[in-house]
Amino acid sequence: MPMPSRLGRYAVRRRIGSGGFATVWLAYDEQLDSPVAVKVLADNWTEDQAVRQRFLEEGRFLRKVESPYVVSVYDAGELEDGRPYLVMSYADQGTLADRLEVLALTSGQALEVVRQVGAGLQALHVRGVLHRDVKPANVLFRTVEEGGRTEVRAMVADLGLGKALDMSSRLTMIAGTPSFVAPEQAQGEPLDPRADQYSLAALTYLMLCGRAPYSHASLAAAAAPGAPPALSTPDRDFPPEVDAVVRRGLAPDREDRWPDVAAYVEALAAALGPDADAGPSGPWLPLDPELTQPGARPSPLPPSRPLAEPVPPRRTRRRVLGAVAGLLALAVGLGIGYAVEQRRDAEISITDDTGTLSVTVPSDWDRARSPRMWQAPDGGGEFPALSVGTTADWTDVATTAQGVFLGILPGDELPEQVPQHPECDGADEPVDDTIDDNATRTVVYTRCPGGVTVERIVQLASNRLLWVQVRSADRATATAVLDDVEAHGY
Question: What's the whole-model pTM score?
Fold first, then answer.
């Protein structure tokens, strides 16, 4: 949407960010002389009562909590065109995701983030609210004046997936960020606060050792996570007590975790010891103008199914290229000049553990790979899969990371609809094609956070489909990766 001059009584300064469900604007409260963040429901969702209700519930959940470690909602309203909006705290020091992109946190800084985020989650739980999507992008930092000096405060944000505990005990939508979501949440089971504790433990692991405990490509993979690697790395060594605390927080069975978030935070602080405490002088997290973001990045609701998509099988590279012809025609029709681009010299070919699936990608994509089997949606069973990306959370709809996911699943016909991507602002018409009697369906989503997302599904055999998703900065790279996907044995 174009930048409005005002949203309600708030003067708009600039856009902070946007996703598939909302746009967030930096605005100014002239009456109170203060900057605020105004989150407005996207106009294409105004008539969808379920999405509208979820948007308003976020505001209600946040208003239930009086905590300095939870983003505050100051006001709510409705624009003339019927779109609701929420007026919230403005986070002038960006997100934890921003910080981790440019510097590693010390043990003391990580512990302080855990303490403050834990305090925010505990406040939500006391008020009967689950967050359900604790991850780096949903931890915001803002500056506050405390005791005559400037401090940086961490706040829990974005309750787009939040649920009242009484509702979560009866009905749970399967959603969340795969690398941080609790197994019971990925399985669609009733939830309690230990699901948020699991996500906080995954966040702890990331901050302490510089990598996430898991690089799940889908919620199906998150449903059966297995044991994470050891917390210690050659660069950062931690006592066994610290590893034990975090592993208990990451226990697949919630009954084996800590009783609550407060108990987990207390145990972590004791295991790290006094040397990990943040120093008494100056902000525990330094103010850095280069790091400062204009506000919180909205995190749209992820799709209910794992991100992925099918692709052409058992064809040589030349034959598979024909499957892209429809995409080429569409691109030319849009005036994009969609020529086959010269592939980068640095490429790498990767095969899954079973030898069924392989793909060639730019070498810088091979930073996080998972060649293991996956659980097909709707309890369809375990099948070969392969995920490769520039980061472990490349499937997160809010990131600009790139990657490809391949997964075989049961099916005797193409689905009516490929996975949707509301985080993208545009989508081409679906392209149905037949290559050597193999039916395919492809959709290209455009103006996505990282560029383009291509969803494709192919009928491999009478009872097998291949599902492929590619996220890339440009169409040419996405097409080249699709061209280099192979399924063996079909």
Answer: 0.57
